[in-house]
Amino acid sequence: MTPFSFSITKKLSGKLGRVGVIHTPHGDIETPAFTVVGTKATVKALSPEDVRDLVGAQAVLVNTYHLYLQPGEALIKDAGGLHTFMHWDGPTLSDSGGFQVFSLGAGLEGKGEKRILGASQDSSRAFVRDETKDPMSGQRRYGVTKFTGEFADSSDDMRPRLYNKEIALQHGKLCILDEEGVTFTSHLDGSLHRFTAERSIEIQHAIGADIMFAFDECTSPTADYVYQKEALERTHRWAKRSILAHKRDYNALKSQALYGIVQGGRFEDLRKGSATELAKMDFDGYSFGGAFSKEDLKTLEWVNAILPEEKPRHLLGIGEPEDLFIGVENGMDTFDCVLPTRIARTGTIYTHHGKVNLLRTEYQRDLGKPDDTCDCYTCTHYTRAYLAHLFRAKEMLAARLASIHNLHFIVSLIKNIRRNILDDTYPQSKENFLRTYRV
Ligand SMILES: [Zn+2]
To answer: Distance, CA 56 to ligand 1 centroid (Å)?
Structure first.
């Protein structure tokens, strides 16, 4: 029995899109599909039964960076692996941790470009972790002022080099990049850690998800050409090392699939070059990384025209309703995105007329369904006024009911897209949806 395979059922005429099935040791994923995000081995506010029965999701994606820091991959392994630990017996994916290492550990914060600290000429400076106690709570706080060579995770060779000591000190967080990997501070307590391609695979083996991702350097799409090219070449070297690390563990090789991640920002030659390089490598599937906005979606076509057609493709971190159509047409098979649950927790729901913020005064006495065309658990039993009341009263049920609806909305939308491709009604159905849906 092949533990992992992909079969294409039907192609979307005139486009790169296709309908297929990904077979995993924990069941099939009928594609195109939306995989719900369960960052810390939980889909926020929902039980696995909610995710399966009320949302109708087929697969859950967890985050390697977060699970490594808390509770630690060793505990998940001892508990019998991710599926047993979180009580989800369907297909799972674990991302590589690359994006979080660079975004949460990066030296610059805020809405501006997150530039990575790294590749320094000066490797002679030493930095230490300092520890202070909060006078009020007595809790320990960590900050990095100088490096001593002591890492919280000491399983790997460490040769940290600092790019800009001042920025790191000023922000109290850092992300140090070198050829071998990344040294970063935990966003939880400031402690120092290190990921390499091999370490990321080792952690993902212990977590035990059906689909893993190779460790990549996730750059900002607005980064300049020289930097993107350098990062991309490093990502390709890490991709090769990720495959070797995976092949060294026979048990994992039999039960887990590994996807390579195409990077390259918005530069056509870099994206195409990345797809060409990765296509030569022995990956089970491919993923498109570094997409942050709709502008990045136009690069999907460049990449998917090159990647081997018979292997599945995942679009990392993008999954708004209007994006799904673009992604599917351009050959993506699976999607994930935190937005449906993130916006749900702050009172915003998807409807067939676009997004609605239930905290607006006009919904306080609105006794209509949250979305009048939706048949999910929330829309069947509750009104906009009731949800608005729960949000205003800061009741926990608010997040659960809104999350059930938003995930059901997205999961159903992509199931409809799949059905419409199969019965040749895709163009009309897309037009019907987008005619009323306002971004
Ligand atoms: Zn609903």
So the answer is: 12
Please report which residue ranges of 70-172 form alpha helices under DSSP H.
Answer: 73-78, 82-86, 98-104, 165-171
- 384: CB partners within 8 A, 6+ apart: 356, 358, 363, 366, 367, 368, 369, 370
Cα–Cα dist 142/193, whole Å: 13
Residue-level pLDDT at 134: 53
CA distance 411 to 316: 16
| pLDDT < 70 positions in the chain | 1-2, 102-175, 292
| pLDDT of amino acid 180 | 86
> Residue 340: in which H helix or E strand, if any?
helix 339-345
| Cα-to-centroid distance, 401 and ligand 1 (Å) | 9
Domains of the chain and any CATH numbers: 5-101+195-337 (3.20.20.105), 114-192 (no CATH), 342-436 (no CATH)
- How far does Cα 416 stand from its chain's mean position? 23
Residues with catalytic function = 95, 336
Condensed to tens digits (0 to 9), the pLDDT of residues 131-156 reads 445 555 555 443 333 333 333 333 33
Determine the distance separating the centroid of ligand 1 and the alpha carbon of 90, expressed in angstroms.
23
